[in-house]
Amino acid sequence: MHEPDMIERVAAAYGRLREGVAAGRERVDRPLTLAEKIFFGHFVDPRNQPLRRGEDHAELAPDRVALQDATAQMALLQFELAGLERVMAPTTVHCDHLIQAQVGAAADLARAVDENEEVYTFLRSAAARYGAGFWKPGSGIIHQVVLENYAFPGGMMIGTDSHTPNAGGLGMVAIGVGGADAVDVMAGIGWGVTMPRLIGVHLTGELDGWTTPKDVIIRVAGELTVKGGTGAIVEYFGPGVASLSATGRGTITNMGAEIGATTSLFPFDERTAAYLESTERAEIAALAREHAEYLRADDGVEAARAEVFDRVIEIDLSTLEPAWVGPHTPDLRNTVDVIGAFMAEQSYPTEVTNALIGSCTNSSYEDISRAADIARQATEAGLELQAPLLVTPGSEQIRATTERDGQLATFERAGGDGAGERLRAVHWAVEAGGCGGGRAEHDCDLVQPQFPGTQRCEPEYVGVHWESGAGGGDGVRGFD
Amino acid sequence: MAFIGSPELVVATAFAGSIDFDPRRDGIAHDGGEFRFAPPSGDELPQAGFDSGESGYIAPPADGSDVEVVIVPESNRLERLTPFPAWDGRDLTDLTLLLKTQGKTTTDHISPAGAWLRFRGHLGNISGNLFAGGVNAFGGGTGTTLNQLSGEADQPVNAVARDYKEGGVRWAAVGDENYGEGSSREHAAMELRHLGGVVVIARSFARIAETNLKKQGLLALTFSDPADYELIGETDKLSILGVAELAPERPLELRIEHADGSSETVSVNHTYTEAQVEWFRAGSALNMISGRV
After folding, report:
1. Predicted confidence (pLDDT) at residue A214 exceeds the cutoff of 90
2. Whether residue A15 has pLDDT greater than 70
3. Counted domains in chain B
4. Architecture of domain A326-475
5. For residues A95 and A133, what is the distance between their CA atoms, to the nearest angstrom?
6. Are residues B155 and B277 in the same domain?
7. For labelling, which of A104, A126, B156, B277 has a CA lying 20 to 30 Å from the CA of A85?
8. Beta bridge partner(s), residue B266
9. Residue A427's pLDDT is what?
10. Considering the domain boundaries, does residue B72 fall inside one?
11. Nearest CA distance, A131 vs chain B (angstrom)
């Protein structure tokens, strides 16, 4: 536990949650969704806050702030002007965006430290001066580190990165913002958003076989399109939730940024508790169990979903199929059985030239383990990679654990000795090519993976990349 | 060209060599036979617990008041900010027009990203991109404007703004519809204030950009009649009247003095709340917090 008072803070947040929900019940005469409960628990004035979705401005008091190293610079410079001794909300600074992936873990990290030394020195000293936690370059992608250390069910945080909603997998309302908003919360100026619309995703059935949490968000993106989530919170509920791991839920809420959603959210359950316990936060898991009724939608929401949500998407996980999205946009979905026909129709080449896994969206222990299982099957049968496979653990913790448990070695074996430059499994620095920037800030130039003629902006995604017919790959704008 | 799928699918496809591969049904030809994947499996959480590896965390001291915030003096990437001055209590009169933009004026027109982001911690340096993408309503040049001190046309907007600042000339910018849409980058507001801007008048604002201008102590105003945008000439002097009575839901007046000596006065709206009026008076929201009024 990195902050000595974290348990007390979570307990206090649950106290406000109880009071806020009580106020909400007096005002809203129907079952409450989880998003509504968490908002009531964080309204500055839960009794009088206007509630019209898409219209009223909500005044909120988030529990935490997370800054990445690019936006943190001006945020901390501005914070100095506030004349405060310490940040008004717990804040962490994460050095991840300024690292460029070019060669491999050690070299990329060393170059980043060299080029950005004055920035890192400033951020580290300013964080120490004003009471913020500091994560050195090499420790992980901001939202992966947040998930492992700070996210908690029922909480609310803002982060200066578009994939901040990753923490929604643990049941936290986590919203990506610009640096100016972060300064406001750090300085106690106050913060707010337009009251979000609510989109419900009703999950039934069970995941199975080749279908993964990624396929759930791919399906949602295909239905809502890249703008369909704008101004909305996407809340997942229903019996199917139980078949998704906590980190799998994080994959879904992370990529919810690609449909423009304010954030996405899953309820707390025993799988959330298991993840908290596994990441040395058993006391928070215990507190969450005590407050479980506040950390999930009311039972009546499922039956009343058509009235409670502005829109409902129904997904039967048992019949959901594995799929791809792309090229160029994350809402163009083709299931694996029809992708070949789609490619033929578009006259696209089907040869894979690069493959990348890990990074910010799919970096969990489960993801790396399952992917390593596929690599192991193929390698044991004597198959060789047909394209370079790049593996990017999302945090130092994931890197160290998958190194200890052998998954990284499995990928390295798949690369094959003497197989040549093209058949290589490369293992990047944990943030290298991590997250290209906040939604507000398309810092694509910060991420330049050394793929032959390929993308710049989307390496945080698991993807298949290959050169297009003319002039090399053209990247996937809008994915960052 | 890039596609996104699950890690399991990506790895299987990297072995198949073609995206036209359904691992549930298709095999891969190998050694005269056919290899088929079994569905992926793996532990959800490590049985031996997580290994935190080489911890990269540095906790802040319980009392940080003795810690020096380090900015190397010769840095071109970081620059300590100085507080913007408080409002002087008077109407904003005889403002020079720095630039009137036409059409889209997004954050990337006001403060382009790209290579400039290297200087995002250095307000003086990044201000070199001020309005570099803005389309000038008088003649349509991009990122350039008339320097009314020197009389030179088509000068880079940031250089003209610096001249005005050095010459003690307070200036205004005029924008079109949805001024400041796009990014929430605060630099797009800070740069104006840093180089001597006091007011932005637009046909309409993107909400975040409008709030950012307010936070930095600028006046963000909209033409009550959007058609009044057309009244503003290149060398007109602009005055905002009624600033001392700035209050929620109470329009201000804009007096436009044309080059030919004629003038007209139109109504301009704003969305300042009572708290935001205090930001303006203090010179910025952070001045307000610091009590530096």
Report:
1. yes
2. yes
3. 2
4. 2-Layer Sandwich (3.30)
5. 11
6. yes
7. B277
8. B254
9. 55
10. no
11. 5
The answer to whether residues B175 and B259 belong to one domain is yes
Q: What is the pLDDT of residues B35-61, one digit of tens each?
A: 999 999 999 999 999 998 887 999 999
- Pairing of the two strands B252-257 and B237-241: antiparallel
Q: Within a 10 A sphere around the Cβ of B93, how many other Cβ atoms?
A: 14
Q: Is B70 a residue whose pLDDT tops 80?
A: yes
Mean pLDDT of B117-137: 96
**Cis-peptide into A90, omega within 30 deg:** no
Say how many C-beta atoms besides its own lie within 10 A of residue A345's C-beta: 9
Name the E strands within A383-440: 389-392, 425-427
Is A458 close to B2, i.e. CB distance below 8 A?
yes
Contacts A100 to B, Cβ<8 Å: none
What ipTM was assigned to the predicted interfaces of this complex? 0.91
Q: What's the pLDDT score for residue A107?
A: 74
Taking an 8 Å cut-off on Cβ atoms, the answer to whether A2 and B38 are in contact is no
Listed residue (A224, A265, A221) closest to A246, CA to CA:
A265
Cα–Cα distance, A374 to A353 (Å, whole number): 19
B100 plus B234 within the same structural domain: yes
Tell me how far apart the alpha carbons of residues A467 and A455 are, in angstroms, rounded to a whole number.
9
Ordered by start, the domain boundaries in chain A are: 1-320, 326-475
Interchain CB distance below 8 Å, B2 and A476: yes
Residue A420 pLDDT > 70: no
* Closest C-alpha to A14, from A159, A171, A188, A194: A171
pLDDT (tens digit per residue) in B4-35: 999 999 999 999 999 999 999 999 999 899 99
Phi-psi region of A249 (alpha: psi -120 to 50; beta: other; left: phi over 0): alpha
Position A100 scores a pLDDT of 64
User: Rounded to two decimals, what is the model's pTM?
Assistant: 0.87
CATH homologous superfamily of A1-320 equals Aconitase, domain 3 (3.30.499.10)
CB half-sphere exposure, B47, CA atoms < 13 A: 5
pLDDT at B177: 93
Q: Give me the domain span that covers residue B175.
A: 92-292
Identity of the residue in A83, A187, A212 whose CB atom sits nearest the CB atom of B8: A212
For position A429, what pLDDT does the model report?
Answer: 53
B78 vs A contacts (CB less than 8 Å):
73, 77, 118-119, 122
Q: Which residues of B touch A399 (CB under 8 A)?
A: 53
CA pair distance B250, A104, nearest whole angstrom = 59
Please report whether residue B280 resides in a domain. Answer: yes
Same structural domain for residues B32 and B170?
no
B78 is a domain residue: no
